[in-house]
Automatic annotation (TrEMBL):
This is Signal peptide peptidase SppA. GO terms for cellular component: membrane. It comes from Adhaeribacter swui. The active site is at K191, S386. InterPro entries: ClpP/crotonase-like_dom_sf, Pept_S49_pIV, Pept_S49_SppA, Peptidase_S49, S49_SppA_67K_type_N, S49_SppA_C. Residues 123-276, 371-521 form the Peptidase S49 domain. PANTHER family: PEPTIDASE S49 DOMAIN-CONTAINING PROTEIN, PROTEASE 4. It is found in: Membrane. It holds the Pfam family Peptidase_S49.
Length: 587
């Protein structure tokens, strides 16, 4: 027995040491990769933009990204900042002859695509080429590749140009089957975020607002594509509405692509455009590799800073995490930027459908304090709605893309009742002792009384009044004027500007220029990006298990992953919320 235990212990220790050594080797490889020397690019190279991973606001620090390791490592997506910086760098890089767009089902919002598209248009001013190839060309992908000089699509591929759509998942029938009641409290006729909990389809006000802003986004889409392809908007609209394109040959017939051909044919054309012979070597440089190429930055030696604070994700109470906007954390970041003497202006980059009303107000307060001391400019990305609008509305100037989804000035609260589910489905009963009549309020294990419902509704109405009053003051409107365009209604960036909710149409770069002008900096400044991103070791020693699990689930579920996320968010709703309808997906 002693001998058995000895060998067993030796085996366990051996396995532990093996995994420890393996772990240390992986860390060494990752650290080496992260700190490797700058990459040099050979002549006649082409930058390949293969946007096959989700695009986020900022590039995450992921040393495993280029190692191709299993288990979720190395699949952190692309940062919009990285993509834009690489395109700009390539524009002036003598070794880069052009850009090869290899885009299919691009995972990004319309405003994010708008920023990339503008960079590609600016790149073409260098007289370098942009060539695109697609096996499958989705509506979003076409918005990018339509700027290309040459567009190849696989003869057996698929091409989509049939307009935009938006869908919302409804949970009413599921909740009924589970015997779960939901108490809904809201203010605003158009505040549709709670509809999935008590309806099985869109209400008429919600259908009206979605139809309105979706048509605004689609019209802007068609205008830009028409300009790039030298067609009229009416012609494109007829192709889209009549769904005249069913195959790559149809896309060629109507002038939406320039060539029906294979990947190797696209590469052969790129070689010719690069001035190379057929047997000559041509280098395709990946985005992940090109980001390591040395570049120049304006104002490298300036002491002046413009703080760009990236607020991306759901707004939550407390510190939050890398995928959310923690009220406490972001209030602290704004406070630090306000007190930093080298920071002359602040740009608040918002990409959020909203969330906790309390956390939104905590951040709003710090924006109000900051604008008393230095310019504070809001830059809206794909979404800046409800709580996302709340944190932006105090800024001196609000900049939004024409295809940003914003507004949704409204509030709601949800208090579920799981008593029937626990009793009938699980056989669980509860009993309670109270010192007062309302000591257990709020509770999710019994039905609320009418009096208790009135208490919560009054609180929701109070927060809505506070929200609209602050929004009216921030936008220099009367409360009556503001409430006419509030009621929880969602607007496109174009619609929001027409109604005074937004000041300027443009992207992050326009917001930074406005901030520099307001601070009288001209070009004498550097950007300070906040919050500071965690180092590799911080990531590793932090919630690495959660990150790996998330990436693995995303890879496993593919296009179904957003639905999985929606189900999770339904179960996590708590407190009074200011947010968009559940993950309204535009495609």
């Amino acid at each position: 027995m002693v001998q058995f235990l000895k060998y067993t212990l030796a085996t366990v220790v051996g396995l532990f040491l093996f995994f420890l050594l393996f772990f240390l080797i992986i860390i060494g490889i990752a650290a080496s990769t992260a700190s490797s020397d700058e990459v040099t690019i050979s002549k006649n190279s082409v930058l390949e933009l293969k946007l096959d991973q989700p695009i986020t606001e900022r590039q995450a620090k992921d040393p495993f990204d280029e190692l191709g390791l299993p288990g979720g490592f190395g699949s952190g997506g692309y940062g919009l900042d990285e993509i834009k910086a690489s395109i700009r760098k390539a524009k002036n890089d003598k070794n880069i002859k052009g850009i090869f767009l290899n885009v299919e089902m691009v995972d990004a919002g319309m405003a994010t695509l708008e920023e990339i598209r503008k960079e590609l248009v600016a790149f073409k001013q260098s007289k370098k080429f942009v060539v695109a190839y697609n096996d499958i060309c989705s509506e979003k992908a076409y918005y990018l590749v339509s700027v290309a000089d040459k567009m190849y699509i696989n003869p057996q591929g698929a091409f989509e140009l049939n307009g935009l759509s938006a869908e919302t998942m409804f949970f009413k029938n599921m909740l009924e089957k589970l015997n779960i009641d939901v108490n809904i409290f809201k203010v605003g006729e158009f505040k549709s975020a709670v509809e999935p909990l008590f309806l099985d389809k869109m209400s008429e006000p919600n259908r009206l607002q979605v139809t309105s802003f979706l048509n605004s986004l689609n019209d802007y889409y068609l205008q830009n594509v028409a300009k790039s392809r030298n067609k009229s908007v009416a012609e494109l609209k007829n192709i889209s509405d009549s769904m005249l394109v069913h195959s790559p040959e149809d896309a060629l017939k109507y002038g939406l692509v320039t060539n029906v051909g294979y990947y190797d044919e696209a590469l052969d054309y790129i070689k010719k455009r690069s001035g190379l012979k057929e047997d000559a070597k041509m280098t395709l440089v990946s985005l992940k590799k090109y980001r390591k190429v040395a570049g120049t930055a304006e104002g490298d030696y300036s002491k002046n800073r413009i703080a760009v604070i990236y607020a991306s994700g759901d707004i939550v109470n407390g510190e939050g995490d890398d995928e959310s906007i923690g009220g406490t954390k972001f209030a602290s970041e704004i406070r630090k930027a306000r007190k930093d003497k080298n920071v002359k202006a602040i740009v608040l980059r918002v990409n959020s459908p909203g969330g906790s009303a309390m956390a939104s107000d905590v951040i709003w307060r710090e924006v109000m304090l900051a604008r008393k001391e230095k310019p504070v400019i809001a830059s809206m990305s794909d979404y800046a709605a409800s709580g996302g609008y709340y944190i932006a509305m105090a800024c001196d100037t609000i900049v939004a893309h024409p295809n940003t989804i914003t507004g949704s000035i409204g509030v709601f609260g949800v208090v579920p009742n799981f008593q029937g589910f626990l009793n009938d489905k699980l056989g669980i009963t509860l009993d309670r002792v109270k010192t007062g009549k309302f000591s257990d309020l709020p509770t999710v294990t019994r039905q609320m009384t009418d009096f208790e419902k009135r208490i919560v509704q009054r609180e929701v109405e109070k927060i809505y009044t506070d929200f609209t009053s602050k929004a009216a003051k921030g936008r220099d409107m009367s409360l009556a004027e503001l409430q006419k365009i509030a009621s929880g209604r969602v607007w496109s960036g174009i619609e929001a500007k027409e109604r005074g909710l937004v000041d300027v149409l443009g992207g992050l770069d326009e917001a930074i220029k406005i901030a520099a002008a307001r601070a009288n900096l001209k070009n004498d400044y550097r950007l300070k990006k906040l919050p500071a991103q965690r180092s590799f070791l911080d990531e590793l020693m932090g919630d690495a298990t959660k990150e790996v699990k998330t990436r693995s689930m995303r890879a496993e579920l593919g296009e179904l992953y957003p639905y999985f996320e929606q189900l999770k968010k339904v179960s996590h709703l708590q407190g009074i919320q200011a947010r968009l309808p559940f993950e309204l997906k535009v495609q």
